[in-house]
Amino acid sequence: MGLPLVSGPVSAMLFVQYGSRFAVHAARGTLLGFVAAAAFCAAYALTSLRRPWWQSLIAAYAAFFATTGLLSVINVTMNWALVLVPLVLAVTALSIDVPTGTQTIATPGKGAVAVRMLIAGAMVLLLTTSARFLGAEISGFLAPLPVLAAIMAATSHRDSGSAAVHTVLRGAVLGSWGGVAFFSAIILLARSVDPLTMYLLAAVAAVVAGACAVALQSAADAAGLSARLRHPARVPAWVRVHAA
Known about the structure:
Layout: H1 7-18, H2 20-47, H3 53-72, H4 78-95, H5 110-134, H6 136-142, H7 148-160, H8 162-189, H9 195-223, H10 225-230, H11 237-243
Helix pairs in contact: 1-2, 1-5, 2-3, 2-4, 2-6, 2-8, 3-7, 4-8, 5-6, 7-8, 8-9
């Protein structure tokens, strides 16, 4: 769910409608927007431990827009973004506690799938038609707005409980590495290759990066790194005494 299934089509339509320069500026904003998407996932995971799906969804969207607002007023260079964003995604994925064992997620019916497709399509249309008024940067920030991930999280939480939604959210964060690769490729290739080649290479980069992120997460779980990050060792009593 973290792959650029919505933000990718948004980028392509922005390129067609407003040109390569607009699309590249939007891609820069989208890179930082994945940090806000990670905040969405972290907030939902934390809230879902004690609250129902609708309250968790409200808290998650509040975290997304608060993070987006903060990032919009901070000047982050491209080099720093390429370092900061993957680091935030990695730490967020490691911090989401996923119970051991297989989590059962209910299979949606055809009607539910159709509704999700319509909502995703409506989001693409809304962002691309309002981009002229929002500008490239804000359009880019909003492109990773969790639409499919929010629907998956809410339905999994409602039907299968908090444990299942944590699995979905971790997958969304890991998949966001694919989104980072996608938009990094657009920024780097926009002036050197034709648009079709650029988006094809960006799609390949997204799939490869997402697969690598999943492999790294599996290795981290095997090494116990995720558990240590979520449940750090307590400070020994003698240390607390001397510190006092």
